[in-house]
Amino acid sequence: xxxxxxxxxxxxxxxxxxxxxxxxxxxxxxxxxxxxxxxxxxxxxxxxxxxxxxxxxxxxxxxxxxxxxxxxxxxxxxxxxxxxxxxxxxxxxxxxxxxxxxxxxxxxxxxxxxxxxxxxxxxxxxxxxxxxxxxxxxxxxxxxxxxxxxxxxxxxxxxxxxxxxxxxxxxxxxxxxxxxxxxxxxxxxxxxxxxxxxxxxxxxxxxxxxxxxxxxxxxxxxxxxxxxxxxxxxxxxxxxxxxxxxxxxxxxxxxxxxxxxxxxxxxxxxxxxxxxxxxxxxxxxx
Length: 286
Fold this sequence. Notes:
This protein has helices spanning 2-16, 19-45, 54-94, 97-101, 107-141, 148-170, 175-202, 205-217, 220-229, 234-241, 260-282. It is mostly helical and 286 residues long.
């Protein structure tokens, strides 16, 4: 019960800081701009007097969808960092936690409650925004992603992974330091994934192994690539398997899904990071 109370207080705090208002505003603006861009692309290049076919337009729409979700992924990461890093660290710095913990409330309940409160914001936000963009692309260009639910689930897991890491770091570092480190871990993981693709093209085993290790240490890039895979048109995936491996270095095209073992590892990684956050906070002097 105490965990749910802390989660509710975390939601109230996010509301007080107008985080929810900002997220809704960003969502409406970005989705409206992407819809306008797709509509303009259709009328300018793929309209009634153009030589392009509806199939080519749907392919262009799929790539526009991937590009939008890449930008949206960045917004998700920044939101996860901005919300997760100060969840514990800011209260430690302000000196409010000792009085809060004087009540019959365990430190583990504080950490889990804050994690649940943050997840209660991130999960519906990511799912609703992604679903809205998928609907816009379907309405404008007629492209339906082959596995939209799997793509959105991967984006949700990516956001939870970054948020969990920021929360963990916030139990030991200042809010600013925790946020910087968590964001850096995400971008390093993404860069390692691109480097691994280059390694596949060049048949460089060291680069591939290094990228694999980075994907296991920080699974955000693997989850992002899973989302991209489930958004790609089946015809494009089939064509990629018959061509050279140069597409492996493209961060906006993924020709194969992640193995089941990776998804299990990502779930275990998030659980382990949350457990480590509980352990770290219980041993911190306040």
